[in-house]
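Intended use. Records like the one below are meant for learning the mapping from a protein sequence to its folded structure. Do not use them to infer anything beyond what is encoded.
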Amino acid sequence: MGWRRHLVRLGSAACAAVFGFALPPSALAGGDLIIGISQFPGNFNPNINAMAAKTYILHMARRPITVFDADWRLICMLCTELPSLENGRAREETTSEGKSGMAVRYTLKPGLKWGDGQPITTEDVAFTWKVGREPLSGVTVLDFYKRILSVEVHDKRNFTLHLDRRTCDFAEINEFELLPKHLEAEAFAKPAEYRHRSLYETDTANPGLWYGPYRVTDVVSGSRVVLEPNSLWTGTPPHFKRVIVTTISNTASMTSNLLAGGIDYVAGEIGLTLDQAAAFRSRYPNRFKYVFKKSLVYEHIDLNLENPILKDPRVRRALLMAVDRKAISKQLFDGYQPVANSVVNPLDTVYDPDVRKVTYDPSAAGKLLDTAGWKTSESGIRRNAGGKPLRLQLMTTAGNRTRELVEQVLQSQWRDAGFDIRIRNEPARVFFGETVTKRKFPAMAMYAWLTSPAKVPRGQLHSSMIPTAKNGWSGQNYPGIKNTQLDETLDSIETECAPAANKMLWHRLQDLYATHLPALPLYFRAEPHIMPKWLKGVRPTGHQYASTLWIEHWRGNKGGGVK
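Structure written out for the chain above:
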């Protein structure tokens, strides 16, 4: 639903029109497809921890009920028809508390089955909602499930969601990630232990967990995930005998594996950075097919607002003013990754072109720090009246060469402004699985959000979305911002559907973000896909729902082109 799309952290008639073919079972002669990505998933439960690497892999073995396609349109994948007020599948109603709510009815497509042969039914829908609403389960999008007051089951395929408010994008339930009740109910018997007891963690290769064109058949932790065709899949037959997703966390070695034939394709969603891909293309312009997709990926630095230094908004603004982001974009990315002035991308329809822009101004940054009580010293590092140095720790994913280079540039520019920046990086699985999710970073955490069109960033900015041990680390407000105006604006955007009024609220949100700076905006990324010339049918989306959602339409043969 538009009222709660999380970031990461897309079959339909439109899809059939794009690809226009159906492969016979013999097309499995495509052999193995080996894909290189730069991170390994922190876990495999689709509802716990938002991470791009996990999403990329699970899209081959699962399907959301609704999703945005490559043309940024909301479509059904597991449902027969999108609900609307016009077709009668959605209607307004009054909640038990006398508030304005909604009833939204969906019908599951016929013949859906889990990989062990059990039918996918509304029992799984009701069970998933039960898990999602349980604070102790550790589900990332707890707020999404809590807004569903009840699930009314009509029969095995038809169900109605009763929502606690009327929202503009009520038909969108992209985050309703179905769980197999017949397998997961036992693991959920102890909700506080569900995160670790889930079969997605203890028996990942269990066929009953999967229902996409492929299913996970082998996992080597930190190294690779193997997927093989799901014999119970009723859509377009998949082309490859196996898809092997290999993790190469050091992005500098990704290209050497590509050249040596260790991998066939570097995933644009979670592979090389743009500068690395551009340099590789200049050396091997004709050997591979290159696609540079502008995207809604938002590279930024979360600030821990419980840090005594970062509590002061003057310090946060000085940090941003002391960084020459335009120079970073030009020198490292040849200008292809534009400076971000807000959490909202200029490609998005809700972007405010007049949003407040913080420009590079080291002199003004110094004055702000003076006002905040951080004075220059002989060492060049500013100190407060008590002699404490202006020292902060910066963290990101270890092995990502570009991020580590950006860190060094930031460290140098901030040093010139009087900051003492200490760098400490971690493997992506630890960084996202523990440090960011549980808000263990002491000061600054650099990473990217993968968003979807017109995504309301409630989960990242609303005060109710701060992860804690008490709520099972649900929510994605990792900076810990608490702001009444921001909360009210986020709430209103979801329910004020008149275009002009909604646009004004989006503009207000962007202004509040630029004013309070819970995070430092860096730039919006372009996704560089490097694929063999024989691979056809890949269509990058540019948003959080990866191209692998349509992997059954990918085709090609290493030994002799397309079959």
